[in-house]
């Protein structure tokens, strides 16, 4: 086992899912996004824990992510959130993935391949109400729903949209989000007026779960909340979720340096006094962003120590002071849930980014270690 490892607290993941489900109206389904290797936490193990905690759907961002889960034995419905290329259509059908559809051309292509393969394929119609990414115009939704209904090998299982600013409490963003929901409601009604059941309606991401109960519809898709972080600083107190990932390493070397000695590339930090430097075997190739230094610190024992000099590809250095008690092989925690102190949210603030980028960025060369009842039942 490598010194640097990501500890995944599955008990926290299950706790977070429980908190979210408590907020939902009775009968509302839960879709757990496990795209990007479950935001860096490990898609397969998270998928199993989520399903056992009551998730109805999983969501991925690519056809291959869905195939990987199917080949590992996952049988729950898997919604593919990004648009595939035509060559992937047979794979979608073969592995029983549920694609989003946004236009007539793809609906026709999908229906033709499904017919050739003798399969009936569930689809979700995606409506663009203001994200301006993928999706049909709200006014086209009823027409496309009719086209899906006319394809004998397709089934309109759901209708979705995505909210662009639901994590903001700014008045203009609240008005924008409510406008998106109003457009979505009208599109759903127009589909019903054509005598077509829109299926499972879903729109709510983490931000909407926090502050738009009317956006629950038939299913919600919270992402970052499940992994233990609020969707924004505006909503930091909305649901008391617990971070799921902890990143730790160990001290592999300690050396004394004299005042005036520079540390790491480009000599960006020079020791102001005689001190000791501890080297940690973790760097930007592991996902520890180079821009986190200066400013970042790590916890060793019950104290935090600053990372000094440039973070290297595979290592970084910590100033442990002129009279250190730190020992070689001691554990150093980069971030994690309480009582670790700093979390991925704190590092995100330091790097002017979001917790998503911190956890997603932890490279696969960093081993994942799973803790909790779910891990013991694996």
TrEMBL record:
Pathway: Amino-acid biosynthesis; D-alanine biosynthesis; D-alanine from L-alanine: step 1/1
Catalytic residues, chain numbering: 35 (proton acceptor), 265 (proton acceptor)
Cofactor(s) listed in the protein's UniProt record: pyridoxal 5'-phosphate
Taxonomic placement: Bacteria, Pseudomonadati, Spirochaetota, Spirochaetia, Spirochaetales
Residues with N6-(pyridoxal phosphate)lysine modification: 35
Source organism (scientific name): Teretinema zuelzerae
Protein's job: Catalyzes the interconversion of L-alanine and D-alanine. May also act on other amino acids.
Keywords: Isomerase, Pyridoxal phosphate
Catalytic activity: L-alanine = D-alanine
Family under the similarity heading: Belongs to the alanine racemase family.
Every Alanine racemase C-terminal domain range: 244-371
Record-linked NCBIfam families: alr
PANTHER family: ALANINE RACEMASE, ALANINE RACEMASE, CATABOLIC-RELATED
UniProt gene name: alr
GO cellular component: cytosol
Protein name (record): Alanine racemase
Listed GO biological process terms: D-alanine biosynthetic process
GO MF term set: alanine racemase activity; pyridoxal phosphate binding
EC number per UniProt: 5.1.1.1
Annotated positions binding substrate: 133, 313
